[in-house]
């Protein structure tokens, strides 16, 4: 079979294509989960962060999920060390509103 879209080719390429399509929300949520936040809070915060931060800022935040310590307090402490006022403001606001279940 000499088809450009053979089943074997699709079986190999489809997972690769789907992995590349991970949304900023899902990558941010996953980083927050790795940092020790609950699924509900991480999901809520990811939406807020993606809406209010640049891709470069989101990448800096994602790197924090790989560090030591877990939970909101520890995450906010590490975010403060990034020395980016917008990241600090948006993340603290999102953490507070999402932890309290306030509407966004």
Automatic annotation (TrEMBL):
Residues 1-22 form the signal peptide. Keywords: Signal. PROSITE patterns: PROKAR_LIPOPROTEIN (PS51257). This is Lipoprotein.
